[in-house]
Design goal:
- The protein is an alpha+beta fold and 153 residues long.
- The chain is 21% helix and 38% strand.
- It has three helices and ten strands, in the order αββββββββαββα.
- The chain has a ten-stranded antiparallel β-sheet.
- The longest helix is centred in the first third of the chain and has 12 residues.
Length: 153
């Protein structure tokens, strides 16, 4: 996945106008959290990424302190318009999300604490987008989110 696209998306979602896109630090494993990886971005905070066979999962916190969840694929070439997508959690509840595409990643701000709590416990997310349906195993999302929030302090 293109790190530049991820950084651009995080900048758009998480920071006021910046003169230049900050460069990420090296990814580090999140202890006791499977394949989740943490990256620090100077001036913008941290984000986590979990690679997957169908879609990579991305997790961040925006400037308003809200959870931001994303999905990305190296073969996506997304239009620069908001997309209506749905996010199904563990084969149960389906949540509509307005997703902001940035090159090959879509980002959605989690609208409330109820959905945030559901996502924190999620084991699997199913993204339904105009490009198709994509499944991501996300065990440990809650731990990754706690690490990101601690990184912001």
């Amino acid at each position: 996945m293109r790190i530049a696209a991820l950084l651009a998306g995080l900048v758009l979602l998480g920071a006021p106008a910046l003169a230049a896109v900050p460069q990420p630090g090296p990814e580090q494993p999140i202890p006791n959290d499977g394949d989740w990886r943490l990256s620090r971005v100077a001036g913008s905070g941290c984000y986590a990424r979990l690679p997957g066979p169908q879609v990579d999962t991305l997790l961040a916190v925006n400037k308003d302190g809200k959870m931001v969840v994303g999905a990305g694929r190296s073969d996506w070439k997304l239009p620069n318009v908001l997309e209506d997508v749905t996010l199904q959690v563990d084969g149960g509840n389906v949540y509509p999300i307005k997703a902001s595409p940035v090159v090959n990643v879509i980002f959605g701000v989690v609208p409330d604490t109820v959905m945030e709590d559901v996502l924190r416990k999620a084991r699997q997310l199913t993204w339904t987008t105009p490009s198709g349906r994509f499944i991501a195993d996300v065990a440990g999302l809650g731990i990754a989110y706690d690490v990101i929030r601690a990184c912001l302090r």
